[in-house]
Design brief:
The protein has one helix and 13 strands. About 4% of the residues have low confidence. It is elongated and about 55 Å long.
């Protein structure tokens, strides 16, 4: 997922939010797809009920389940994430080698599992196929030339 916006503040008393876009413009967001805001380390999906662009990088929005000033204030200053890829082919890691933090070979990526808010990869290891999370915080590095990705793999997943 890509951090696409930041909630700046609530607007009015009926749950409307002012958000500022970061990596993409308001016109690039797919309003039919959910955006995610993290609570207690987990991504919570929200859908747009309304979306009114304000300038080149801001919008007044209403999200599902946010219908009061109290709800909106709880989201103030939080980051907004979306599943966003400019070119899905560029993001295809199938066939890449997975390395551990210390450079130890783990296996080869064979497929993806798009669990809402949690992209995972299937890795063919010496001990069989494993499902591993693919999150920005776990990626240490990527080498496109050698088609290798280095991951910080949480204990117990291998």
């Amino acid at each position: 997922m890509l951090k696409v916006a930041q909630v700046l503040k609530s607007n009015g008393t009926d749950g409307e939010l002012l958000i500022s876009f970061l990596e993409i413009g308001p016109e690039d967001i797919d309003r039919e797809e959910p955006v995610y805001i993290y609570f207690d380390g987990l991504p919570v999906p929200f859908y747009f009920e309304s979306f009114n662009q304000r300038g080149t990088a801001r919008a007044l929005v209403r999200l599902t389940g946010v219908h009061s000033l109290k709800d909106a204030d709880e989201l103030a200053s939080r980051a907004v994430y979306a599943d966003y890829f400019e070119n899905e082919e560029d993001e295809d890691l199938t066939g890449w080698k997975v390395l551990g933090e210390d450079g130890t070979p783990i296996g080869t990526i064979t497929a993806y599992e798009d669990i809402p808010g949690n992209l995972c990869i299937y890795v063919d290891t010496a001990d069989g196929e494993r499902l591993l999370p693919l999150h920005d915080e776990l990626i240490i590095g990527m080498d496109e030339d050698s088609r290798e990705i280095t991951l910080r793999i949480p204990e117990g997943l291998l």
